[in-house]
Structures are given as C-alpha cells and as structure tokens.
C-alpha cells in the first residue's frame, strides 16, 4: 500500500522524475507512450462495452444488466489509472537504468474479462431460453 | 549515430507511429463518447440526461484537445517526452467518462 501512495505522489511531481538518472533515448520514451495509449484504448474499450451492455441487452433483469455494465466500467477505470501509473514507473525505471516494472495486472484483467464474457454468454443464452 | 543530422528522420518512424497511436485513441474516445451520449438520450430529454450529454461532450473535447496538442508536438524529428499533465488529462477524461456513464446507468 505504501508503494501505491509513493507512486501516487510521483503522478503529481514530474520534476522529481526528471531529476533522476539520465534522459533515455527519445525512441524508448515514445514506445512507452504508445504502450500507455494502448492501455488507455483498452480502458476505453471496456467502458464502451459497459455502455453497450446497458443499451443493447434490455431483456436482462435490471440488477444483472447494471451489475455487468458497472463491472465493465470499473475495470475500465482501473485500467486507465493503471495506464498512468505504469507509464510513470516505466519512465522512471528507464531514467535510472533499472529493469522495467512487472505486474500481475494484465493476467488479472484478462481473467476478469474472460469471466465477464462467459457470464454474458450464459445470461444471454439462458435469458432467451427462460 | 550516423543519421543524426538536423531534420534527420528516425528510420523506425517512431514519431509517426506515436502520432497514429494518438489518432486511434481519439477515435476510441469518440466511439465511447457517442455511446455515452446515446445513453444520456435514452430516457428522452431529462435534466440528468442533458447533464450527462453535456459532460460527455466536454470530456470528449478535453481528450481531443490533449491529443491535438500532442500530435502537433510530435511533428518534429526528436519530440519531447509526453508531459505528465497530458497523460493525467487523457486518463482523467477516460475515468470521468466512465463515472458519468455509471451515474446515468444507475
């Protein structure tokens, strides 16, 4: 948890990162930026999915529909926050010449998406039948 | 580096690729904003719906502004690093769109 608070502090103190280490090759920074944007797009896709569940599955019960779309929206929010965090941590690691940070987030996210997808298939199929 | 003369172009086209990544992301944001606006109009012209519509449009414009600034600043052979403010605004608009939609869905 203190790790998280520390990186949160880095979000709003760009100068502290700029003071560390050496400026990496601009191409590495651009690659890091594209990774950040790819995560933002993933977040946007999850959010769009949440909106779509609410609009295009009106046959589902209210609680199920709202629960599914809120779960997707929450995943999108987490993904966007993590995009910033990961971008900053990678930028700092590159300046310091350290290894890039690794994390469990991609695995957790893909499992969550898989679970939501299976739940949706089951709900749509059995919702139609029932 | 042999090809580091003034105006030399990166053979890997990194600035161009990054510019296109911003374009793709703006496009995704547009799709989400349109879905959000559709969501806001679902129950007709209610006060909550209109607020949601205005907020979605504003957030979309905010994202567009950040992307546009960044795309312009990438138009050099050796662009600077993305600013913290830019990254925070882009992610903030994304989060705010989700929160706005969640309020409408609820």
UniProtKB/TrEMBL annotation, chain A:
Q: Where in the cell is it found?
A: Cell membrane
Keyword check for Zinc: no
Q: How does it sit in the membrane?
A: Multi-pass membrane protein
| TM regions (residue ranges) | 36-56, 62-84, 105-126
The record's listing under InterPro entries reads: DUF202 (IPR003807), IM_YidH-like (IPR052053)
List the GO terms this entry assigns under cellular component, sorted alphabetically.
plasma membrane
- Annotated DUF202 domain ranges read 27-93
What this protein is called in its record is: Membrane protein
Automatic annotation (TrEMBL), chain B:
Q: Where is the DUF202 domain?
A: 10-73
Q: Name one Pfam family in it.
A: DUF202
Question: What topology does the record note for this protein and the membrane?
Answer: Multi-pass membrane protein
Residue ranges that the Swiss-Prot or TrEMBL entry lists as coiled coil: none
Q: What's in the keyword line of the UniProt record?
A: Membrane, Transmembrane, Transmembrane helix
Its transmembrane ranges are 21-41, 47-66, 87-105
List, alphabetically, the GO terms of the cellular component aspect.
Answer: endomembrane system
Q: Where in the cell is it found?
A: Endomembrane system
Protein name as it appears in the record: DUF202 domain-containing protein
Can you name the source organism?
Streptomyces termitum
């Amino acid at each position: 948890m203190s790790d998280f608070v520390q990186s949160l502090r880095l979000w709003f103190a760009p100068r502290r990162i700029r003071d560390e280490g050496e400026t990496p090759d601009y191409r590495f920074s651009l690659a890091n930026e594209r990774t950040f944007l790819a995560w933002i797009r993933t977040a946007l896709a999850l959010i769009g999915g949440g909106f779509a569940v609410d609009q295009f599955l009106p046959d589902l019960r209210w609680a199920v529909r709202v629960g599914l779309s809120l779960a997707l929206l929450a995943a999108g929010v987490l993904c966007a926050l993590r995009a910033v965090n990961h971008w900053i941590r990678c930028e700092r690691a590159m300046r310091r010449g350290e290894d890039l940070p690794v994390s469990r987030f991609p695995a957790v996210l893909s499992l969550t998406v898989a679970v939501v997808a299976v739940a949706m298939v089951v709900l749509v199929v059995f919702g139609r039948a029932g | 580096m042999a090809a580091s003369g003034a105006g030399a172009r990166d053979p890997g086209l990194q600035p161009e690729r990054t510019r296109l990544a911003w374009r793709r992301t703006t496009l995704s944001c547009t799709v989400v904003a349109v879905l959000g606006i559709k969501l806001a109009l679902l129950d007709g012209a209610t006060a909550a719906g209109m607020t949601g519509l205005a907020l979605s449009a504003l957030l979309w414009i905010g994202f567009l502004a950040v992307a546009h600034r960044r795309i312009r600043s990438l138009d050099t052979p050796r662009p600077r690093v993305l600013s913290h403010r830019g990254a925070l605004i882009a992610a903030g608009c994304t989060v705010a769109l989700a929160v706005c939609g969640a309020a409408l869905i609820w």
